[in-house]
Amino acid sequence: MRSGRIHQVHRNTGPCRNFPGSPTRYRGIISMNDQYSTIDEYIASFPPGEQQKLREMRAVIRRAAPDAEEAIRYGIPTFRLDGSNLVHFAAFKDHLSFFPTASGVEKFRKDLSAYTLSKGTIQFPLDGPVPYDLMEKIVRFRVQESRKTKKA
Fold it and tell me: Could you tell me the residue ranges of all domains in the chain?
């Protein structure tokens, strides 16, 4: 990880709310140029319990999208398919987020009613189970959607 200009100082409060792409940190300082170069590096920056959930989220995405490549985009783990972002995932102070785009959220909105949703984001509480089976269905949907878009 490289450091640069200081963006904001936090005291165990999670990411900067005004800079959505900033990495979540449990240490003191967030730098605007902090970047993880790999998903492994990103996951290793979290406490063990969160690391396990992040590893499982990654494994689910890999299973559902075996042709996707891993990357870090917007400072968070991303899976890309045919040159486009497919899904992202991240950990924050009090939740995990899964970003399957607006279409992924909308298609499965009924199944996701127990979770906090926004246009393209699903939040899973840190202290609760992650619906890995549902995540896998959403990723498979996104793969199909991405491939249809490429053919059109």
Answer: 1-35, 47-151
User: Hey, what CATH topology would domain 47-151 get?
Assistant: Aspartate Aminotransferase, domain 1 (3.90.1150)
Question: For residue 4, which of 23, 13, 99, 80 has the smallest C-alpha distance?
Answer: 23
For the stretch 47-98, pLDDT in tens is 999 999 999 999 999 999 999 999 999 999 999 999 999 999 999 989 999 9
Alpha carbon dihedral 39, 19, 142, 43, in 10-degree steps, equals 20
Tokens for 73, please give them: 């985009």
Quote the CA–CA distance of 143 and 127 in Å, as a whole number.
Answer: 29
Structure tokens belonging to residue 125: 């509480």
> What tokens appear for 62 in the block?
């890999």
User: What tokens does 116 get?
Assistant: 């906090």
